[in-house]
Amino acid sequence: MNSIARLIIRKLSLSISTIAITVGLLVLNPSTAQADTSVALDTANDLVKVATVYKTKPNNQTEVLSDVLKFEESTLPQTPGFVNSSILKGQDGTEVVALTQWQDLPSFEAYSQESIKDAPKTDQPQTFIFEVQKAETRGLKPAIAESENIMFSQFKMKDPEKQSELAGIIEQMMPTAFKTVPGLQWAAMSPSTDQSTIAMIAQWNSREDFESLGKNAGFDKQTNYWQTYADNEHDLFDVVKIIR
């Protein structure tokens, strides 16, 4: 065997060893592999959490999503106080949602004032700050990860003064939802600070599980517990991108 052949074999052996070590580390510590594609939802309210909802239609959702991605990827990572953003695409084609976490409120407010001129040219999005009031889980820590089925539900208050009352009812109903549908992994009930909305963010195993809850009394169209308090807009979302 000549020297060139020996050199090629040596390089191949080193490459294979490197790949084996990397795979081994990822198997032993899967969180390393997920670090860039998953973010923990701050349920302790140490961070400022912001939802921005862009209304779309099935025929323009892809365009709106592209605009939102370009805007956030070009402005957020270098912004002081920014922590992360999760970009969600509604499976029914009617919404794109950005869930953003910040170190503090002044950082978010400064960014909003500075970036408004460069924001996507879409219908006026709805933006609200929210805090997690109640989180329930089967063991998984609430986290948003690419490729997961994430529900984003908005209870839009008919009377903002009754937000806390509805929040209390939702809190009481959450254990029932977990008992009814095994495919619900975690849920975070999150009232907005302006009292206009209560957001419910949750992870489901599948769309079938998600839709099955609405077939049960107390959650269906006829008997749902929120109808006198709020209009509920909800869908399952694909997590398209995590921005850090």
Can you offer a commentary on this structure?
The termini are far apart. The chain folds into 2 domains: 3-34; 38-243, 2-Layer Sandwich (Alpha-Beta Plaits), CATH 3.30.70.100. The model is unreliable at 14-27 and 29-34 (pLDDT under 50). The chain is α+β, with helices and mostly antiparallel strands. A hairpin with a 4-residue loop joins strand 3 (82-90) and strand 4 (95-102). The chain has helices spanning 3-28, 30-34, 61-75, 105-115, 163-180, 207-213; strands spanning 38-40, 48-55, 82-90, 95-102, 126-130, 134-137, 143-145, 149-157, 184-191, 197-204, 230-243. Helix content is 34%, strand content 32%.
- Order of strands, main sheet, comes to 5-2-4-3-11-8-10-9-6
Number of helices: 6
Which percent band covers the strand fraction? Answer: 25-35%
Main sheet attributes: strand count, strand direction, barrel closure: 9 strands, antiparallel
Q: Structural class, judged by helices and strands?
A: alpha+beta
Helix content: 25-40%
Using the 3D structure, state the CATH architecture of the largest domain.
Answer: 2-Layer Sandwich
> Which fold name fills CATH's third level, the topology of the largest domain?
Alpha-Beta Plaits
- The H-and-E topology, N to C, reads as HHEEHEEHEEEEHEEHE
State the end-to-end distance: 50 Å
How much is the radius of gyration in Å? Answer: 22 Å
The overall pLDDT average reads: 88
What's the total number of strands? 11
Instruction: Write down the overall geometry.
Output: globular
Q: Low-confidence spans: pLDDT under 50, at least 5 residues?
A: 14-27, 29-34
How many structural domains in the coordinates?
A: 2
CATH top level of the largest domain is: Alpha Beta
